[in-house]
Amino acid sequence: MIRNMRFSDIDEVIKIEETVFNDNWNKEAFIYELKDNPFSYYWVIDVGDKIIGYAGLWITFDSSTITNIAILPEFQRCGWGQKLMDKIIFTAISKECETISLEVRVSNHKAIALYQKNGFIKINVKKAYYRNNDEDAYYMVKPLGRI
To answer: What is the pTM of this model?
Structure first.
């Protein structure tokens, strides 16, 4: 079940961050997102009282940005990433956004495939975007078709 992230979920979300990413967010960052950032939307996938994934989105005026999306490795390739993507796209459209953007490591082929399947287009490369290893990121955008 996809539901809004709660403060009580943060410790489990941090474990997902540490498992999935090399350059993970800390607890304070998630507290800020849930408590103080009026532009943020965060969800978790709760399966049998276990959080297996989460996603975050910022919406500012008519654009939106995916901040994070992660699924525990043992639950990847089961459709959960797509379910989060569907939630993100639905939310962005319902808030009348014109685009959804994101950055993704150039080496993250699984994520890139998911994004391309959902209509994201590579716009450019951000050189040395990731601070932990200076890896480049693709900047990708999905137009939502609003005129």
So the answer is: 0.92
